[in-house]
Amino acid sequence: MALKVANLLNKLIAILLFIFLIISALPLKALSEQIQQSRLIERPESFTTRQLPELPVNYLQSVNLQQLNKQDKIRAQQNQPFRFAIPIFPQQSKEMSGEWQVVGEMAIWRLNIASTQAKSFNFVLSQLTLPESAQLYFYNKSAQQVLGPYTKDDVAGSQEFWSPLIEASEATIEINVPVSDKPQLNFEVSQINLGYRDWQQASLPDNECHIDVVCSQGDDWRDPIRSVARYTIKGQFLCTGTLVNNTSNDRTPYFLTAKHCEVTPSSAASMIFYWNYQTSSCNGARNGSLTDVQSGAAFRAASEHSDFALVELNKVPPSPFNVHWSGWDRRNSIPDMVASIHHPGGLEKSISLDFGPFSRTQRFSDSNNTNGAYLRVTSWDEGSTAPGSSGSGIWNSQGQLTGTLTGGFASCQAPQESDWYGRMAVHWDANLSQSAQVKAWLDPETTDDLTLAGVDECSPPEVSVTVEPQNIKINEAARFVINNGEDSYLYRWDFNDDGRIDSTSAAPEYTYDYLYKGNLRLKVVAENGCTQTLTRAISVLPPEEEIFPLAGRLSSRWSQSRRADDGWFIDSNSFFEGGLSLKSKPINNSQKAAIELIHNFNHPTDNFISFAVKTSTESGKDKLNFYVDNRLVDSWDGEVPWQLNYYPLEPGLHILSWSYEKDNRNSAGADAVWIDAVSGITQSSSGGGAVNIYSLLLLVCICFVGRKRNKNQLC
């Protein structure tokens, strides 16, 4: 008997040893992907059926890598954000429409994309409407990386979906929907971003000095390290940023980064955040995992003066991510030492240390300036930065965030060069506008605290929201119902995701008197201060009559901008609502077609401008720019299908202008841009509210001085 038991034990040990050897032979990254895949309960239908024909591969045209690398060197010298991918617009190719197959009661749509030059892919789906029963997947050829299923709850109110990265040279998009629900499905693959950089292979030539955060140099910075994420934006650019605390300590997911990373009100929805992307050992293999990922954010504030941007994530990072909300220091003092935590070149998280001296300067200046908006790190003592580090934070010896990286010339190959960080003291309230300062968002309690400690995540309340009716009509009251709520909870409703609290009721009603396609945002605060952030897609149906241009004509307040080469005209060939829109007139290279209006926004609390845009231009070059008082607010380029946008405004007189601006060569697409469904202004020729003397003087300042001043600082 004992001999039999011994034989069984020997066999068991042999089996376990065999399994151990197999697992040990797998690369750690591949093992991580296998684990990620095994977590998925639901799999794409094509994985489980053998009745599907082989899917044809759509090979993308070759790109000029030599030219891209040359451009990227220039971009780095100009401190532009790190580019890793270029956009391709498949709607220009009939071959990229994908294929439908039906297996039993399930309809399966697939599109297979490949490129021998691709290191990664990511995709943009527009006009996306998923039935409750539909599931969306993205995966590579080997099925080692499977993203999804994504459902109706994952689609933003803008009806756009930006996928995380698929690290492969071949990738597939798949949608599964019951045949009976297929008529409710709508989508368009509007953009494929071909990733031509391979950060997994440590492609930077000067990466040898970067210090992994798991090394001993990171031991004093474990909390700030957990607050840092790598993110992609517009599917093409990569930067770093920080989750930051606010004086309510309620875990609102504010994320601070740099404005020059292409962060705008329209691009915030495209942000994909990767948490805990770091090596498992100091100076070990590049084996960081990209599995801790979340999508989407709402723009809150930005300023070129100190180069910051603040967004609010669509959801609080899940508890398993174990993130930290960083504390901050907004004092005007100079720190005695600093640490920077960042993703150089998109690589795993790194840390750099410097023990001074430091100085206050203007951007990229070596001269001391007590009023300088930037902190200059003269040279790093340990580690360095690189493209991709932009937007990352810098912490003082107390572990408090004091600034964000705008750029510099430091690198592993140039250790004596400097970097410049926009200072938190200037981010705070150097600009009086809520949309250009962090004070309005990080100090909601108006404590005027100079410093704030960080906090860890906590257990948020678990509630859901029901919206009635499901199809909201313009000027019709919508009702919002809390499910699983408690009397002790506090509710903060934001019906158009502009950051303003519209209601604190447990069962509010709201009437959309304007077209809106975006997110409803609800913050539910428990007694312990923990907050749950919920977003819900809202789409307001247009009326039968034309909203804009009203009665098929523009009022006299609309005019061609005085410095433009040409204006715009009413178009009936493409429109968002009704049957008309406004389209830019044809222009040549290095010219602009611009139209503007002046309006007095006199509502006491709810002033805004809302409009739809469409562009068909040379990507990254010829742009539709939207300005308020000569300040660039948002920008679009490339092939952008109709997209509805909403911008809160402060009371008073404003100049609004839409300008199509071409660079000095080449054209693409229709070489035109459109706007439609303009709301928030009075369409009649009489204009908005009364214009007072101060407003007229302010208008003169805007037009001839080029910037808005304080009331006690007239032109």
What layout of secondary structure does this protein have?
Elements: H1 2-25, H2 28-38, H3 45-48, E1 58-59, H4 65-77, E2 82-83, E3 85-88, E4 99-103, E5 106-114, E6 120-129, E7 135-140, E8 146-150, E9 161-162, E10 170-178, E11 186-195, E12 211-212, H5 222-226, E13 228-233, E14 237-244, E15 254-257, E16 272-275, E17 293-295, E18 297-303, E19 308-313, E20 324-325, E21 328-329, E22 338-342, E23 350-354, E24 358-361, E25 374-377, E26 393-395, E27 401-408, E28 419-423, H6 424-429, H7 439-442, E29 451-452, E30 455-456, E31 464-468, E32 472-473, E33 477-483, E34 490-494, E35 509-511, E36 517-525, E37 531-541, E38 559-560, E39 568-571, E40 581-584, E41 592-601, E42 607-616, E43 623-628, E44 631-637, E45 639-649, E46 652-661, E47 672-679, H8 693-705
Parallel strand pairs: 1-5, 32-37
Antiparallel strand pairs: 2-14, 3-11, 4-5, 5-10, 6-9, 6-11, 7-8, 7-10, 12-23, 13-14, 13-16, 14-15, 15-19, 16-17, 18-19, 20-30, 21-29, 22-23, 22-26, 24-25, 25-28, 26-27, 27-28, 31-33, 33-35, 34-36, 36-37, 38-41, 39-40, 40-47, 41-46, 42-45, 42-47, 43-44, 43-46
Global mean pLDDT? 88
CATH architecture of the largest domain: Beta Barrel
Name of the CATH superfamily of the largest domain: Trypsin-like serine proteases
**Cα radius of gyration in angstroms:** 26 Å
Helix-residue proportion = 10-25%
What is the highest CATH level, the class of the largest domain? Answer: Mainly Beta
> How many helices does DSSP assign?
8
The description of the largest β-sheet is: 8 strands, antiparallel
Distance between the termini: 102 Å
The coarse silhouette is globular
Structural class: mainly beta
Number of domains: 4
